């Protein structure tokens, strides 16, 4: 389904897009970041926090990160302080990139079994599919965050994978 090269490419894209979104969000005031703008996770802050929460959930399964105790419905409040969120995002992106460097074909081919709180049951699925979901989840919610940031009057650099990745990997 996917390759180790894909995992590393998406980890690089993830880190760079987070940098771009956090830079843009950082130019807004805390009040502007926390304003309910009608997004699924309400605010820019809440959306960015949920992405990190999701990353921590998946990486607790993929790489033994501590599993967030915050339930999914409150995941937009996983980290309240902006500076703490920024630091956690940067560390998370470094750790995801480090993990991606060690992913190989054999690891991707093995199934993972875990209890999903969101589904309310035990699930077994191929790691390759789950890693694809992991990166898709980031991209999906970053798109929402990008829309909220744009609506707040800020801009980011390019977001297209084919434009971003050559800059990052080169």
Describe this structure in words.
Helix content is 63%, strand content 7%. By secondary structure, the chain is mainly alpha-helical. It has a single domain (4-169), classed as Four Helix Bundle (Hemerythrin (Met), subunit A) (Up-down Bundle). The chain has a two-stranded antiparallel ribbon with strand order 1-2. A hairpin with a 4-residue loop joins β1 (111-116) and β2 (121-126). α1 packs antiparallel against α4 and α3 (44-62) packs parallel to α4 (82-102). It is globular, with a radius of gyration of 16 Å. The model has no long low-confidence stretch (mean pLDDT 94).
Summarize the structure.
By secondary structure, the chain is mostly helical. It is built from 7 helices and 2 strands, in the order H-H-H-H-H-E-E-H-H.
The percentage of residues in β strands lies in 5-15%
Largest β sheet strand count, sense and barrel closure? 2 strands, antiparallel
> In angstroms, what is the radius of gyration?
16 Å
- Helices, by number, come to 7
CATH superfamily: dinb family like domain
Termini distance? 25 Å
What is the average of the pLDDT values?
Answer: 94
- By CATH, the architecture is named Up-down Bundle
Count the beta strands: 2
Tally of distinct domains: 1
Low-confidence stretches: none
Overall outline? globular
Q: Which bin fits the share of residues in helices?
A: 55-70%
- What would the CATH topology be? Four Helix Bundle (Hemerythrin (Met), subunit A)
* Order of H and E elements: HHHHHEEHH
- By CATH reckoning, the class would read Mainly Alpha
What class do helices, strands and sheet pairing give?
A: mainly alpha
Oligomer: single chain
Spatial strand arrangement across the major sheet? 1-2
């Amino acid at each position: 389904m996917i390759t180790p090269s894909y995992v590393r490419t998406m980890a690089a894209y993830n880190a760079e897009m987070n940098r771009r979104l956090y830079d843009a969000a950082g130019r807004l005031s805390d009040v502007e970041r926390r304003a309910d703008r009608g997004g699924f996770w309400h605010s820019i802050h809440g959306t960015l926090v949920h992405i990190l929460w999701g990353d921590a959930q998946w990486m607790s399964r993929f790489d033994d990160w501590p599993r967030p105790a915050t339930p999914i419905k409150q995941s937009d409040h996983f980290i309240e302080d902006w500076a703490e969120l920024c630091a956690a995002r940067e560390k998370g992106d470094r750790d995801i990139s480090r993990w991606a460097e060690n992913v190989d074909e054999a690891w991707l081919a093995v199934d993972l079994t875990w209890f999903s709180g969101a589904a309310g049951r035990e699930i077994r699925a191929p790691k390759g599919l789950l890693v694809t979901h992991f990166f898709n989840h980031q991209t999906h919610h970053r798109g929402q965050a990008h829309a909220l940031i744009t609506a707040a009057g800020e801009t980011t650099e390019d977001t297209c994978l084919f434009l971003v990745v050559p800059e990052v990997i080169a």
